[in-house]
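quick q for whoever's on today - can somebody do inverse folding on this one?? i tried earlier but teh output was garbage lol. tokens:
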């Protein structure tokens, strides 16, 4: 694309990741690159690891890879498992299916359980089914249980604590590995409390960074497993990373500028307070779902207890190709929505409510959807935009939080100049 052909105004990037990146983070990323073996780097390395530990809610090491989330998926498997090991995986949607395919390609023996057909893609992980399967595995042939926390292809968030309880109830020693690539920093996540052995996350979702770095949060049990695991690994190997991270460095060149962005992102999240960040996403999710209900359309997640605070999957009526609706919305209104993936391709689209958003960007997004649906000939029961306006107006973001964030904004302006980057001139 030629840069000068870019339409005026901001593009609406409302896919469920990569999410819109706040200007504050973009500015941090633009700082000059420093020597990753030099004296200043260690402080950055130690800061981002400590901040990530707070976000994952863990006291254990967190490995950072210069790779997309797929790399961190591979790292979790190759560090802990050996050829032909059985792994129990649960089919919640497209990303669970891709992780299973990766396990096959790595020479593992994944067993995929879940509801048959596309119906399973409307529900979360069934902890009781996992417990039963583990009880049946008297010889403990299953070495790991792998589940997706927030299934980005459907907008269903699974109950990870229930999976932990299921493994414990079956008295099974399998490792618990959780993909929270799109959950971390938007949906509640507790690595240590939920007894997760490897948590996998990525930069481009709740952390509000561009794509390019990804994470493995570890447990003592996972580190012990890595010492006897036989799958080949070098780039992904935890041992050298964890060792060098103790002094804030990496065994190879880290993504310095993305780490600047990560440091800024962690400052933003922790300044706001994680409970407030999670509440903000919950509220956005409810606002968007209020619109979908007013349109008279169906939400892809069939279990209200598992609605994702990160994205909402919207089913289009039979005979309406969701991708054509998305394409029209993109062409007419410069708004990108998530496509339906795998089994639900053409049957639904996804609205991301994460990253640098607010009530008005979400209302504009819903307006783009509503216009696009109407232009595509979908007869809507009512106006989702009006319903969402009423919802947001009736449910203000907690005022103490809003006041605190406005206060912080003015403090920053006093310290650094104006928000557009110009030095403030005293009048
Ligand atoms: N798992 C989930 C839940 C995801 O949402 C994604 C990407 O969207 C991935 C895995 C793959 O990550 P990446 O595309 O960053 O390699």
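ok took a stab at it. sequence:
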């Amino acid at each position: 694309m030629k840069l000068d052909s870019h339409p005026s105004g901001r593009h609406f990037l409302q896919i469920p990741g990569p999410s819109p990146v706040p200007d504050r983070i973009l500015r941090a990323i633009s700082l000059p690159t420093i020597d990753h073996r030099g004296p200043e780097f260690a402080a950055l390395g130690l800061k981002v690891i400590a901040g990530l530990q707070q976000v994952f809610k863990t006291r254990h090491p967190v490995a950072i890879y210069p790779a997309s989330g797929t790399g961190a998926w591979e790292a979790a498997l190759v560090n802990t498992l050996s050829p032909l090991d059985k792994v129990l995986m649960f089919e919640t949607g497209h990303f669970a299916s891709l992780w299973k395919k990766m396990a096959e390609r790595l020479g593992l023996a994944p067993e995929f359980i879940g509801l048959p057909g596309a119906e399973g893609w409307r529900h979360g992980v069934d902890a009781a089914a996992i417990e039963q399967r583990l009880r049946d595995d008297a010889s403990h042939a299953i070495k790991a249980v792998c589940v997706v926390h927030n299934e980005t292809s459907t907008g269903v968030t699974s109950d990870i604590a229930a999976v932990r309880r299921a493994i414990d109830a079956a008295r099974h020693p399998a490792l618990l590995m959780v993909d929270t690539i799109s959950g971390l920093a938007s949906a509640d996540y507790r690595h240590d409390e939920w007894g997760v052995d490897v948590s996998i996350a990525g930069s481009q979702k709740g952390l509000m960074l561009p794509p390019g770095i990804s994470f493995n949060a570890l447990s003592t049990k996972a580190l012990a497993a890595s010492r006897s695991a036989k799958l080949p690994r070098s780039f992904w190997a935890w041992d050298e990373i964890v060792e060098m991270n103790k002094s804030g460095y990496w065994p190879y060149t880290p993504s310095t500028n993305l780490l600047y962005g990560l440091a800024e992102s962690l400052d933003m999240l922790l300044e706001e307070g994680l409970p407030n960040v999670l509440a903000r996403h919950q509220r956005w999710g409810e606002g968007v779902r209020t619109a979908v209900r007013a349109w008279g359309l169906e939400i892809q997640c069939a279990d209200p207890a598992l609605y994702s605070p990160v994205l909402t999957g919207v089913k289009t009526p039979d005979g309406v190709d969701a991708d054509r609706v998305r394409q029209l919305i993109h062409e007419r209104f410069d708004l990108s929505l998530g496509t339906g993936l795998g089994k639900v391709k053409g049957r639904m689209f996804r609205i991301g409510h994460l990253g640098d958003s607010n009530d008005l960007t979400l209302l504009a997004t819903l307006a783009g959807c509503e216009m696009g649906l109407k232009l595509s000939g979908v007869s809507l029961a009512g106006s989702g935009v009006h319903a969402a306006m009423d919802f947001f107006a009736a449910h203000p973001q907690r005022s103490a939080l809003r006041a605190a964030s406005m206060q912080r904004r003015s403090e920053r302006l006093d310290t650094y100049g104006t928000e557009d980057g110009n030095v403030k001139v005293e009048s």
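fwiw The first strand starts at residue 12 and ends at 14. also Residues 17, 68-70, 95, 148, 152, 179, 181-182, 202, 211 surround pyridoxal-5'-phosphate (CB under 6 Å). so keep that in mind when u check it
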